[in-house]
Amino acid sequence: xxxxxxxxxxxxxxxxxxxxxxxxxxxxxxxxxxxxxxxxxxxxxxxxxxxxxxxxxxxxxxxxxxxxxxxxxxxxxxxxxxxxxxxxxxxxxxxxxxxxxxxxxxxxxxxxxxxxxxxxxxxxxxxxxxxxxxxxxxxxxxxxxxxxxxxxxxxxxxxxxxxxxxxxxxxxxxxxxxxxxxxxxxxxxxxxxxxxxxxxxxxxxxxxxxxxxxxxxxxxxxxxxxxx
Length: 228
Fold this sequence. Notes:
By secondary structure, this protein is α/β, with parallel strands linked by helices. It has a single domain (about 5-225), classed as NAD(P)-binding Rossmann-like Domain (Rossmann fold, 3-Layer(aba) Sandwich), CATH 3.40.50. Helices cover about 50% and strands about 15% of the residues. The protein has helices at about 10-25, 35-45, 55-65, 95-120, 140-160, 175-185, 185-190, 195-205, 215-225, and strands at about 5, 25-30, 50, 70-75, 125-130, 165-170, 210-215. The protein has a seven-stranded parallel β-sheet, sandwiched between helices. The protein is globular and about 50 Å long.
């Protein structure tokens, strides 16, 4: 049985992907900060739940120890930063530091902690990025800067760890609490469902294409082509 470690797994895309992988027979280690939602999800999916903050080195060590035979690391947990989203001229620098801790440093810490087993099992790393990493959206400078850093970090990881599959995926807007916080609940409600994106990500993991950055269009093309 293959094992996946998913961060930010108590709701949104993380939870939807956990459900999709569970349906495919994966064993799961799930983490998030919200204990109640996390433990409820883990109970439903017969998964291991370890609540905590991915920016905490001790928590990262606990996660790695809970998955000694790991096939897939999903760096999904992310922080949006202050809302309403401020322009760069008003972005508190402490808030930007926290964004880098959650969106860049924590994913690398998890990669470093799990690399021995990922190398041994020729596993995969899936990072969730954003079009804010490559487009100039007013107010999204802090978040987008961290996602740009995640993109480049993933790109280099793919070059350094050629036996692994490394994907950094921009899934587009999804109807999540994070998007609602950024743009309002009405606009967020019209976005794609996390479940539909999770289904494509689960197929991506099964197909295992070469490492690289995938937009929502590229993800759909890869997974649709594999079904035909």
